[in-house]
Amino acid sequence: MNFLAENATEAVKSTYSHFDIFMLVFTILIAIGLVRLLMQRPRKNVLAIGFATVSLLVFLAADYKMVSGWVF
């Protein structure tokens, strides 16, 4: 019976690592930066807005893939 329980716990492994926290923090920082770029009044830096948008999309996709591998 104990052998079956050990096999069941080995089959479900979490992919969580401590680097995941940094990925989430970087995503939040990019989102804050994008909002600040969009809130500028006189002239908007279109290149920076585009770069931040693409970066945010890439980080959001990576975060989704990362969190979907976690086992709760």
Give your account of this protein's structure.
With 72 residues, the chain is mainly α. 74% of the residues lie in helices and 0% in strands. It has three helices and no strands. The chain has helices at 2-11, 19-38, 46-68. Helix 2 (19-38) runs antiparallel to helix 3. The longest helix has 23 residues, at 46-68. The model has no long low-confidence stretch (mean pLDDT 88).
Could you list some keywords that capture this structure?
72 residues
Structural class: mainly alpha
Beta-strand residue percentage: under 5%
How much helicity do the residues have?
Answer: over 70%
What value does the average pLDDT take? 88
**Regions with pLDDT < 50 over 5+ consecutive residues?**
none
Pfam families: DUF2759
Keywords: Membrane, Transmembrane, Transmembrane helix
Protein name: DUF2759 family protein
InterPro entries: DUF2759
Structure at a glance:
With 72 residues, this protein is mainly alpha-helical. It has helices at 2-11, 19-38, 46-68.
